[in-house]
Backbone:
């Protein structure tokens, strides 16, 4: 394994890798005589890792009900700060070449690949799946990021192009990112579902404020560390933990959020968010019940997260 | 005035062949509606044109049921190649009845007949013709194999471009295999009713297209209806917000208000820019051009040419083929335009009015230019319902872009410049679904616009909005 990682992120060196989840918690010394250093789970906002300004935390448990960690419980103010960070990062990320965005996303996959062991343990703990299943889910998540990395410079071929207009004009359409996207990550699929909604935003050139799964946020907390070390510009992806039902209406109503992906919302929250989004006529992505995140990916989100601009110019001598 | 006198060249009102009364069109038949009748006015004379039956809630139920039934039986079972032929028929019928349709558009909406017959009606036919060809080629439209229609599509339209808008939305919806329930504007419902007659003449399977005239209440019932799968809306941003709330959970595409900016650089082809700006702001609907940003070194020259060109506009009877600027479509729009113009004057703006005399009756607004408008004025930030043009200045390209993008809308914009790199840079920066470089008023069925920000989302004139993809 690489050695440039903090010891706290290398649980496999601490002695008890079999136990799913974070093997060491403050209550459970991992090795006699060696007290494990537990990570404080913070938000990822503007490229830094602050606690919630509210000072609130939420306890997180594994699928068996055992305590895993306290995560920061983001507030409305954290959402607004994250939207500001995403807006600030937008011109740079949207203006980067498609090639460059692809390179950065591929780098995310590379760094994720290097941390597969950690994510396997976290996914197993969060979702209560077997080690084999967790391994497959993590591998699929890495591959999913690679799949979207390859789309950055191909989407214009799919959704743009020259129009055969009836007149002496050139008319060409090209997709542009919609802007800042509010993302409610899937509640069940803590890593594969997460990257399946996050990667298309970044691939499309948008920036985002993502609210992680409420009950299963630890893979998202760790994914933020991957993003922070993968050349993703500060603020391009902001990851909040907390209550989706509390944060979704704030994101949906925020005038500086251009689109909302409600993937992780329950039906009640969905209706409320859709109504709030209507206040600024923002696009709300299609919500599908219980999607199978292991199924072959589709470019549908890339289409929904881009908007085409048609540029006309006369032709003639 | 210019000194040029034109003899009137009037299109006959009889060419429209308007009936005294119109019914609602449900399940392939015209019938009486349960709502109170509308009496749409000729905006040029304020005289009622006809009596139009409107739908009530049970009519909305019937229309949605008729659409569903057609999907389960005839229309939904047709292969794409057969749907295509119906659309080709509709396109041909629009061409055959072009003179009638143009007269209807002008009588009902006040659009100058030169625009109705030269642009609107041919464009309507072209939308139907273009999408007819898609109906049997959906596998190759870029959405994977065998994309499915959404089902019953509710279409709610505003008073602008009634026929062209209708065709641009109904054509892709039908091509994709959906059935349509259409609610035209209460101000301009007649084109939709003539279109319903076209559907009858074309032998379109009953229920594939249903037309429910009515007020906004009918539209609200329709978009919220549990039997409706998707909604396409064209209208104001304010109404769009309500539609989005009512249609929550359904597929939705909307084309809303715009505050189109024209950026005129110091190397612009000035005469063409002036022509384009005037064509843009004096036509109906302000989405194409409602602000000009002109670079300081050429501002004086531009304004002089602009003033001359505006003076030469012919304002008056829209049925006269010489008329450039007709009335607004309703008294309500006229009142809003006046209010907006007054607010700019109260804020200290200079105002140049078109010098001609306006007809005594009708919803006419004189074209007016505000040569020293400021960013803070409502006129320079809000959608403009009439022929009013605020002119602002800028020094650097960055300032032009910042000013142009300083609204929550993103419908259409234009750049006038000779230097290609600067024009393309500006085009890229502008927040708009359509950017026209050295041209204006461009639209084509093959290039459906995709408005952004609070001008809407999705392409209501494209296939994607009507397929389950």
Residues:
């Amino acid at each position: 394994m690489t050695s440039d990682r903090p010891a706290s992120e290398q649980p496999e060196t601490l002695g008890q890798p079999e136990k799913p989840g974070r093997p060491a918690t403050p209550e459970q010394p991992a090795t006699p005589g060696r007290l494990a250093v537990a990570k404080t789970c913070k938000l990822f906002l503007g490229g830094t890792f602050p606690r919630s300004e509210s000072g609130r935390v939420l306890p997180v448990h594994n699928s068996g009900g055992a305590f895993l960690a306290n995560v920061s419980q983001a507030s409305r103010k954290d959402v607004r700060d994250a939207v500001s960070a995403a807006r600030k990062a937008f011109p740079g990320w949207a203006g980067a070449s498609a090639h460059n965005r692809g390179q950065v996303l591929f780098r995310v996959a590379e760094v994720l690949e290097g941390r597969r062991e950690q994510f396997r343990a976290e996914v197993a703990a969060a979702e209560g799946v077997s080690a084999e299943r967790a391994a497959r889910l993590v591998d699929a998540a890495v591959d999913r990021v690679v799949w979207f990395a390859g789309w950055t410079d191909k989407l214009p071929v799919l959704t743009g192009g020259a129009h055969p207009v009836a007149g002496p004009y050139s008319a060409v359409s090209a997709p542009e990112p919609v802007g800042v996207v509010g993302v409610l990550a899937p509640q069940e699929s803590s890593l594969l579902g997460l990257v399946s909604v996050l990667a298309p935003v970044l691939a499309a050139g948008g920036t985002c404020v993502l609210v992680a799964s409420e009950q299963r946020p630890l893979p998202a907390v760790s994914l933020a560390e991957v993003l922070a070390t993968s050349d993703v510009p500060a603020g391009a992806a902001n990851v909040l933990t907390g209550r989706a039902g509390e944060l979704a209406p704030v994101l949906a109503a925020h005038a500086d959020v251009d689109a909302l992906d409600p993937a992780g919302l329950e039906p009640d929250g969905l209706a409320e968010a859709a109504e709030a989004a209507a206040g600024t006529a923002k696009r709300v992505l299609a919500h599908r019940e219980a999607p199978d995140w292991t199924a072959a990916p589709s470019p549908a989100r890339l289409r929904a997260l881009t908007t085409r601009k048609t540029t006309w110019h006369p032709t003639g001598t | 005035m210019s000194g040029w006198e034109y003899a009137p060249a009037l299109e006959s009102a009889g060419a429209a062949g308007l009936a005294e009364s119109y019914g609602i069109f449900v399940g392939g038949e015209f019938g009486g509606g349960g709502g109170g009748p509308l009496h749409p006015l000729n905006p040029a004379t304020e005289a009622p044109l006809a009596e139009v039956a409107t739908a009530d809630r049970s009519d909305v139920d019937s229309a949605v049921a008729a659409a569903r039934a057609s999907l389960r039986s005839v229309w939904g079972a047709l292969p794409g190649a057969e749907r295509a032929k119906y659309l080709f028929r509709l396109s041909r019928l629009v061409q055959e009845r072009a003179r009638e349709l143009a007269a209807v558009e002008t009588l009902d909406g006040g659009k100058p007949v030169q625009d109705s017959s030269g642009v609107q009606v041919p464009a309507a036919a072209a939308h139907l013709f273009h999408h007819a060809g898609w109906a049997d080629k959906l596998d190759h439209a870029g959405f994977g194999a065998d994309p499915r229609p959404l089902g019953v599509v509710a279409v709610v339209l505003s008073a602008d471009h009634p026929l062209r808008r209708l065709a641009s939305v109904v054509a892709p919806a039908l091509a994709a295999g959906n059935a349509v329930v259409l609610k035209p504007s209460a101000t301009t419902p007649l084109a939709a009713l003539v279109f319903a007659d076209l559907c009858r003449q074309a032998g379109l399977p009953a229920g594939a297209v249903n037309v429910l005239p009515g007020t906004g209440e009918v539209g609200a019932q329709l978009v919220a209806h549990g039997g409706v799968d998707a909604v396409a809306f064209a209208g104001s941003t304010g109404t769009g917000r309500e539609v989005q709330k009512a249609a929550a959970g359904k597929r939705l595409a909307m084309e809303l208000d715009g505050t189109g900016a024209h950026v005129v650089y110091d190397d612009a082809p000035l005469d063409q820019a002036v022509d384009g700006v005037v064509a843009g702001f004096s036509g109906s609907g302000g989405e194409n051009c409602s602000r000009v940003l002109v670079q300081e070194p050429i501002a004086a020259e531009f304004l002089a040419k602009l003033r001359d060109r505006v003076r030469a506009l012919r304002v008056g009877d829209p049925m006269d083929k010489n008329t450039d600027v007709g009335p607004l479509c309703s008294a309500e729009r006229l009142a809003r335009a006046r209010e907006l113009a007054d607010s700019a004057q109260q804020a200290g703006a200079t105002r140049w009015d078109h010098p001609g005399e306006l007809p005594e009756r009708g919803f006419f607004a004189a074209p007016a230019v505000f040569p020293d408008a400021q960013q803070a004025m409502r006129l320079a930030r809000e959608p403009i319902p009439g022929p009013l043009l605020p002119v602002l200045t800028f020094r650097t390209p960055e300032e032009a872009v910042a000013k142009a993008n300083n609204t929550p809308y993103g419908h259409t914009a234009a750049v006038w410049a000779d230097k290609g790199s600067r024009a393309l840079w500006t085009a890229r920066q502008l927040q708009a679904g359509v950017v026209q470089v050295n041209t204006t008023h461009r639209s084509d069925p093959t290039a459906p616009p995709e408005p952004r920000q609070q001008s809407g989302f999705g392409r209501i004139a494209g296939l994607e909005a009507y397929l389950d993809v």
Remarks:
- The two ends of chain B are 56 Å apart (CA to CA).
- Chain B has 14 helices and 20 strands.
- The domain at 13-256+454-468 of chain B is CATH 3.40.605.10 (Aldehyde Dehydrogenase; Chain A, domain 1).
- Chain B touches chain A through 42 residues (CB under 8 Å).
